[in-house]
Amino acid sequence: MRRARVTALREAVGKADLDALLVTSLPNIRYLTGFSGSSALLAVSARDCVLLTDFRYATQVEEEVGAAATVRIEPSNLWAGLWPLLTSWSGVERVGFESAHLLHRDFTRLLEQGARWQWRPTVDQVETLRAIKDDSEVACIERAIVVAETALQRTLDALHPGLTETAVAGILERHLRECGSEAFAFPTIVASGPRSALPHARAADRLLQRGDLVLIDFGAVVDGYCSDITRTVVLGPATARQREIHGIVAEANAAASGAIRVGMTGMAADAVAREYIDARGHGAAFGHSLGHGIGLEVHEAPRLARTVEAPLAAGMVVTVEPGIYLPDWGGVRIEDDVLLTASGPRVLTGFPRTLLELS
Ligand code: ZN
Ligand code: ZN
After folding, report:
1. 3-state class (DSSP) for residue 185
2. Structural domain ending residue among the three candidates 129, 158, 175
3. How many domains are contained in the chain?
4. 338 and 270, same structural domain?
5. Does 182 score more than 90 pLDDT?
6. How far is the C-alpha of 213 from the C-alpha of 82, rounded, in Å?
7. How does pLDDT run across 187-233, given as a tens digit for each residue?
8. Are residues 90 and 235 in the same domain?
């Protein structure tokens, strides 16, 4: 499977009129080789695929990479190993680098120590491949969703007035770990009362109060793959206004999740939810885009946003996360993870989307 990914990358590199590609993004390296360590360079030519890492990973890299790449353990500096490697590759002149993932310090190395090659910036060579998930990747995401939903249910069972948002995040993150999450997809967002109107609030020391909207946005990580889920609940009986706003967001979520199709643009997908919310008078309160791809990173290609004209493809897993944020009152977001298949969208998240009123 990983060999097929490298083969697909070689094709893309050839089409870009390059002889080789230097991959410096760790998630991209993990996707291509399976290596999950924090120090690596990967060089891919038409013939070779060589992973450079250091002594700390000697055992791990053999286990994870197998036949997907030739592994070299560099005793000092990975870059010191790159030049003799490239020199040994005859006919390699034009080498691409990942312009979004190379530090300026390392770019300077290319121009100085690597001056004998022609360095060309590339964009999204690996990310484009990563946007389409194979069955094994979808299975990892589904497991990360099950872990997240179990942890969320346990957290909601423990929610009560007087807890701080940070404490709630801690409870959730403990359950994520206990349920098998190897990390957190991102720092858990718990935003209560008026703070729920901040779309990307971090959990803070505010005390939960009866009557609060509580917005929880978080994700689990299983075998490197992320889930990303948001639910907004009420601590106690909901007011009519809370029901109304939650209902609009839930309907917008359902409309978008049910409508997104292979071949639709990111822009058109975004518009489904946006037009629904706009028609109910809250267009200005939905200030972010509808969603994003998830996978080895919690934000990756494709984007479902007003500016995206690229068509969606089968195998993409995207979030659908409309929201309404009313300053000084509060906010509601409902986020699901959706797989696009040739026969239509499949919503992978199953946690209830009705407004939960916690007693
Ligand atoms: Zn999220
Ligand atoms: Zn998200």
Report:
1. coil
2. 129
3. 2
4. yes
5. yes
6. 54
7. 999 999 999 999 888 899 999 999 999 999 999 999 999 999 999 99
8. no
Task: Assess whether 101 and 214 both reside in one domain.
Answer: no
- 335-351: b (≥16 Cβ within 10 Å) or e: bbbbbbeeeebeebbeb
CA dist 282 and 359 (Å) reads 29
Q: Which helix (H) or strand (E) holds 95?
A: strand 94-98
Same-domain pairing of 148 and 254: yes
Which CATH number do you get for residue 342? 3.90.230.10
The C-alpha atoms of residue 326 and residue 293 are separated, in whole angstroms, by: 26
Centroid of ligand 2 to alpha carbon of 299 (angstroms): 7
Residue 228 Cα to ligand 1 midpoint, Å, equals 5
Tokens 């006919």 sit on residue: 91
Rounded Cα–Cα distance for residues 294 and 158 (Å):
28
Cα–Cα distance for residue pair 271/125, rounded to 1 Å: 28
| Angle at which helices 26-33 and 2-15 cross, to 10° | 120
Tokens of 15: 């089409």
Instruction: Give residue 290 CA to ligand 2 midpoint distance, Å.
Output: 9
Residue 172, classified by CB atoms within 10 Å of its CB into exposed (0-12), middle (13-18) or buried (19+), is: buried
CA of 335 to the centre of ligand 2 (A): 7
* H-only helix segments in the chain: 2-15, 26-33, 58-65, 78-87, 104-112, 125-130, 135-158, 165-178, 240-259, 266-279
pLDDT single digits (tens) 137-173: 999 999 999 999 999 999 999 999 999 999 999 999 9
State pTM to two decimals: 0.96
| Token couple for 359 | 């007693």
229-235 and 221-222: which strand pairing?
unpaired
DSSP 8-state assignment for residue 194: G
Domain hosting residue 347, numbered range: 135-358
- Tell me the Cα Rg of the chain: 23
User: Burial level of 226, CB count in 10 A (0-12/13-18/19+)?
Assistant: buried
Distance 173 CA to ligand 2 centre (A): 17
What residues have CB less than 8 Å from 301, skipping those under 6 apart? 124, 127, 128, 130, 131, 293
